[in-house]
Structures are given as structure tokens and as C-alpha cells.
Amino acid sequence: MSWNIILNSSKTKTPLVELVRNASKKTGGSTRNTNCKVRPKHRGWKVQDGHNVTAGHILATQLTTRFMPGLNVGFGRNGTLFAIEAGKVVVTCEKFDPNWEHTWVKRIYAGREEQTIFKKYFNVIPEPQHNRFKLIDEV
């Protein structure tokens, strides 16, 4: 609060005291992100088994290696699987034979040495090329 003193313009020179009240709170701002909810990352399969893809198409996103790259499939730095060539997506479940001497393998697969471990592999089978060319001359 602040005090403003105003002189009276009448013939008597008695001061008038006026009380001015300022805002005690800030003005209301945006309430869009006050609940602090995190948007989901939408990880998982992006293309189902049997679909046709082009080169560079993302097949799956993952945080840990749930899915393994197979034939004509690349593995990104963040675990993303993508198609290297255009073709048909085939997802297979294959036997996985890890290197049991590796420290990470020992930690992740501890107690499963006698079990058979299966992993899902993403494969891209390339489309067969056309046979429209004719051999004219051999070099």
C-alpha cells in the first residue's frame, strides 16, 4: 500500500489523504502445462507383418532391444529399426544365441543359461526386379 497526499484546491489548505492499493498477486498466466503430464513416446511396432515399405521407412522404435534387425534392416543409435531396401516386411521369431562371456549378457540373461532364448527379428524381403531388359551384346 502507498499513501498519496493531495492538496485540497479549496480555500482551506488542508491536505487530503488518499489511500491507493496496488495489486498483491500476479496476473493469471497460462495454465496449459500446470498438471505436468508427460506426452507418450509411442514406441513399438510401426509396420505390421506383411506390409510393403520403402527404403528408410521406420519399422519399430524401442528403448531397449526388444526387436532385432534382420535381413535388409538397419539399427539406429536410439534403437530404431528401419528398412534399408524397399520390400515386404516379415517378422520372425528366431533362436538367439548370446555370447555368455560378455558382462552385459551375463547381467541381462542371468539364470537363463540352460534355456533357449527367442527374439523377434524384423526382415525386409526385397521386391523381385522386373525382367523387361533384353541382352543385346556381351562385353
Strand order of the largest sheet: 3-5-8-7
The top-level CATH class of the domain at 44-126 is: Mainly Beta
Global morphology? elongated
Which regions contain 5 or more consecutive residues with pLDDT less than 50? Answer: none
What is the straight-line distance between the termini?
98 Å
Give a quick account of the main beta sheet: strands, pairing sense, barrel closure. Answer: 4 strands, antiparallel
CATH superfamily of the domain at 44-126: RNA polymerase II/Efflux pump adaptor protein, barrel-sandwich hybrid domain
Classify the secondary structure makeup into a structural class: mainly beta
CATH topology of the domain at 44-126: OB fold (Dihydrolipoamide Acetyltransferase, E2P)
Tell me the number of helical segments per DSSP (H or I, 4 or more residues long): 1
Number of strand elements: 10
GO molecular function: structural constituent of ribosome
Pfam families: Ribosomal_L27
Family: Belongs to the bacterial ribosomal protein bL27 family.
InterPro entries: Ribosomal_bL27
Pick out its properties.
139 residues; mainly beta; OB fold (Dihydrolipoamide Acetyltransferase, E2P); elongated
Secondary structure layout plus pairing:
Blueprint: E1 2-7, E2 15-20, E3 44-45, E4 52-53, E5 58-61, E6 67-69, E7 73-75, E8 81-83, E9 87-96, H1 103-108, E10 117-126
Parallel strand pairs: 6-10
Antiparallel strand pairs: 1-2, 3-5, 4-9, 5-8, 7-8, 9-10
Family: Belongs to the bacterial ribosomal protein bL27 family.
Pfam family, one: Ribosomal_L27
Keywords: Mitochondrion, Ribonucleoprotein, Ribosomal protein, Transit peptide
